[in-house]
Every structure is written in structure tokens, then in C-alpha cells.
Amino acid sequence: MPTLLRVGPYRFFCYAGDRDEPPHVHVERDNGLAKFWLNPIRLQSNKGFAAIEINRIQKLIADHQQQLLEAWDDFFNG
Residue 37's beta-bridge partner residues? Predict the structure, then answer.
């Protein structure tokens, strides 16, 4: 499970088995876990994050979208 990015309490990562899916990130903090598609950015699943925090995470993803896409590509195609 490579970590693609850390911002504050959030860890953005992917699973090695995610290769056959479109680019996305899993985000965790404490007991919260969410999955976001990266292009376009949209929430796929959420367990434990409140709506206001999901909005905050989505903004972080937007701010770092290019970096996350490059890290995804480096991991799976590098």
C-alpha cells in the first residue's frame, strides 16, 4: 500500500491490486476511510467521515490532483 501523499492527518494511498481500476486514492484518518476517483474527482465510498470533512478532503485532492495522478502512474506504470 504505497502512500502517495500525506497532508495533515490524512494519508492518501492506493493498493497494489488497484491496477485494473481508473486512477483513484484511498484516504484514511483515524477510523475514517474514503475512496475518491481522481479524474474527474468524485467520491466513490465513505466510511466514517462526516460530510464537512469529505468536502475538505475533496478540496485537498483537487489541490494535489496532478501530483496524485503522477504518483499513481509512477507506481503502476513506472
Answer: 24, 42
Q: How far is CA 78 from CA 37, 54, 62, in A?
A: 20, 30, 23
Dist. CA 57–CA 78, nearest whole Å: 26
Q: What average pLDDT is seen over the chain?
A: 95
Where are the strands (E) in the chain, listed by range?
3-7, 10-13, 24-29, 32-38, 41-47
Prediction pTM value: 0.94
The CA distances from residue 39 to 10, 50, 59, in Å, are 20, 23, 14
Q: Are 1 and 16 in contact (CB under 8 A)?
A: yes
